[in-house]
Write a structure and sequence with these properties.
This protein is mainly α. The protein contains 16 helices and 3 strands. The protein has helices at 2-56, 64-77, 86-93, 103-116, 124-135, 148-167, 170-180, 191-207, 226-259, 263-281, 291-298, 306-320, 327-345, 349-365, 368-379, 384-397, and strands spanning 182-183, 408-411, 418-422. It has a 3-stranded mixed beta sheet with strand order 1-2-3. It is globular.
């Protein structure tokens, strides 16, 4: 009996410490979500105005090379000649250096300039950098109040808040920073604070009248035994496309860095190339993030080569020095490929586009849980089984490529084997 009461008292004491932990992180996450959410919404509003202005005034695309010069100038003046982007945020979370706070101002201005003038980039990568660098101000707090581990969790909270506020997917936003750092191991200790920050930011957005992103709620026709097999085949193809896209981005960076030692010349050449390509295709579908094209892809209203064109436009834009993100372009590529694949196989275009988007996101980030959640939040939960099938296939078939070179793969994708390798390593000997 004494042992029984001793265990009760011991667990009550443990519960008390857990409650204090929750209270502490509730306050920190509430503050982080509010501040980062507010700044992110301001960014989202200005970015939206920039995109609208470009659509209404197509001539502004001709200013893209000049916008690139301004971006490079700002980064040079700030002493950030090699900013690192989202990779720098991930390396900070891996306890490898500190995140410069000035990145928040730089990515804010440069992404808006890029979208205003038609650079083919997304904004969610910018959100991760914006939220992470804003939250990095916690490094000014003395260590006796918050240690290094606490400060890294705050950066994750900032990433969640920014992603949630800008993209309107609070569940996926809470999970993504925990999943993207080390594939195979989730940092569950950050779950509560990341969710609170994400939730606060999303509710803040709703309060101010910002609608959550919802591409379409799918209503798939009656199931057939053919659907799963077609989706598996499509997901294998999307995984290959994801690998090609990552290689294109990497080699685009390398090409501009080696062929044009002067970053100003590189960004001008890249800007001119995007302008010329825009004139050649005869429309602006591949400028900006392209969320409107993703919506059209779900309805089958895209040309078959849309995914190829977006890969080229985005590789040139990001490789030459324009700022933004690769996540929405990845959505674009996956959704348009899925729509084209549907036209070849006869499966419903909406389910093919959604599964293509899910498979592509997983292929370039190695984050299957986030991929499932974000797809469900954008398309509804009716076809979750197909989403997960596409994601599972893509996760295996995409190998160890990633948009983020600092990402670490903790466990093999093919065996229950601990490998702890960077995506930059050669994995031939580890499967």
């Amino acid at each position: 009996m004494r042992q029984f009461f001793h265990e009760i008292v011991h667990n009550l004491e443990r519960g008390g410490r857990s409650f204090v932990y929750m209270l502490k992180w509730f306050v920190i996450a509430l503050v982080t979500g509010s501040i980062v959410g507010a700044v992110s919404l301001a960014f989202s509003w200005l970015d939206g105005r920039a995109n609208s202005f470009r659509v209404e005034n197509p001539w502004v695309i001709y200013l893209l090379p000049f916008a690139g010069v301004i971006i490079i100038f700002l980064y040079h003046r700030a002493g950030a000649r090699k900013p690192g982007g989202t990779n720098k945020v991930i390396s900070t979370l891996q306890a490898d250096g500190k995140l410069p706070v000035r990145m928040s101002v730089l990515i804010f201005i440069s992404t808006i300039l890029t979208h205003l003038c038609g650079g083919s980039v997304g904004r969610e990568g910018a959100a991760l950098q914006l939220g992470g660098s804003l939250a990095a101000t916690s490094y000014a707090i003395p260590d006796k109040w918050l240690d290094e581990n606490d400060k890294r969790v705050i950066i994750m909270c900032g990433m969640s808040a920014a992603f949630s506020a800008i993209f309107g997917t609070p569940i996926a936003a809470a999970i993504f920073p925990m999943e993207v750092i080390s594939i195979g191991i989730m940092q569950y200790s950050a779950l509560f604070p990341c969710f609170i920050s994400s939730f606060v930011a999303s509710r803040f957005a709703m309060f101010l009248g910002f609608d959550s992103e919802t591409i379409a709620v799918l209503r798939t026709p009656a199931d057939t035994v053919r659907y799963p097999f077609v989706i598996i085949l499509m997901s294998v193809c999307v995984a290959i496309v994801s690998v090609i896209f990552v290689i294109m981005l990497k080699n685009s960076h390398r090409f501009f860095a080696t062929k044009f030692k002067n970053q100003y010349i590189a960004v001008i050449v890249g800007g001119v190339a995007v302008v010329v390509l825009t004139i050649l295709v005869g429309n602006t579908d591949y400028n900006g993030a392209g969320m409107d094209v993703i919506t059209r892809a779900v309805k089958g209203d895209v040309v078959w080569y849309a995914f190829i064109a977006k890969m080229i436009f985005t590789s040139i834009s990001i490789g030459s020095g324009y700022k933004g993100g690769e996540i929405v372009p990845s959505f674009f590529i996956g959704a348009t490929f899925g729509a084209w694949f549907a036209s070849l196989t006869g499966i419903p275009v909406s389910i093919a586009a959604a599964c293509g988007m899910a498979a592509m996101f997983c292929g370039v980030t190695n984050c299957p849980i986030t991929s499932l959640l974000i797809t469900c939040e954008l398309f509804g939960f009716n076809d979750t089984v197909y989403f997960l099938l596409a994601i599972a296939v893509s996760y295996v078939m995409s190998g160890y490529m990633s948009l983020y070179s600092t990402q670490r793969i903790m466990y093999s994708k093919l065996k229950t084997r601990f490998i702890n390798k960077s995506v930059k390593d050669d994995f031939d000997d580890f499967d």
